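README: folding subset

This subset contains proteins for which both the sequence and a predicted structure token string are available. Records are stored as plain text. Below is the entry for Aminotransferase class V-fold PLP-dependent enzyme (373 residues), shown exactly as it appears on disk.
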Amino acid sequence: MDALVNKQSFIGLPDCTWLYSGAEVPPHQGCLDAVAEYFNYRAKGPKGRIRNAEVEQSCKVNIASLLNGKPSDIALLSNSSEVISMIAHSLDFKEGDNVVINDLEFPSGVLPWVLLRKMGLEVRVVHHTNWQVTVEDIMAQVDDRTRLVMTSHVSYLTGARLDYRSLYALLKHTGTLLFLDATQSLGAIPVDMNDSDFVVCSSYKWLLSTHGMGILAINPARTADFQPRAVGWRSVTDMFGPDRFESFAFHEDARRFELGFPSYPTVYAANFSTGLLLEQGIDRIEQHILKLGGMVIERLLDRGYEVMTPVEPGRRAGNISVVSEHGEAIANHLSEHNIYVWGGDGRFRISVHLFNDEEDINNLFRELGTYKK
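--- output ---
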């Protein structure tokens, strides 16, 4: 089974086996060229700013296409943690209100809510059963005082995919908002922002870009009047208005969440990488990932490993997680042979993306078999 793209187009990829995309991806030469373009235009003064605006808009168009949304509903911030905290602290909580999270969430999706406990917010944690959290598990914790459900589309911990569309179908007729973290899915499998109220995603994992950007997608169906509790010059309609020392008006679209300039080197890189993903086609990428991941799971099970990730293709994406108290040591052992997986937190995680092929899987299991506890 061949890769979907030429490995030679990724810097350093021909010299290693990269099964690390759940953490970050190898740099694509096109991203390097895009960042170089940014610096070249930076040297052109005002012309550089014009080009920045063009690339930023193009990037938003690409991201909106990946999310089946509109560019005006996309905001570009610094990182996912900033996005989540901004939304968390912008909700008008009253004492006795609650949010629902689960114990398969990455810390960035947990910590802002824990902080808000000091303000009287109740944080309800859904606990997994055999590494799975279902829609029914989440809805069992939702009541008329639940303001928001925060969940990942694909768990960083287990690789399990949640049916967020069914969850939103239940929530959208209530006063409870859905905040979906697509960091481990966008760029690998289809994501539709119309089936959530907020979507957040990082730039440097499955989207094939660099560090420096947190994507926020706002579904205006239930959030048109939602206003942030942070403001900057980019958030407002007229930063030099005559009444700027007394009042201001937020943009009506997602720009109201953007405080200042984004990281333009990242925007240029993401504009390239999201274009590459759209060119390849997310459905095609998904099928490649699921087929290759199925090979990984089958071989892991044949060797007696306890796999956290569901076997069924529709219940997983690109991450395959394995229970192991030696996860970090296994990852370190493989790294010595230029095979990159993530290890720690009671597991090791193998991530497959569009640049992986069957040879990568063979390399992994050859060296995995040499690991000695």
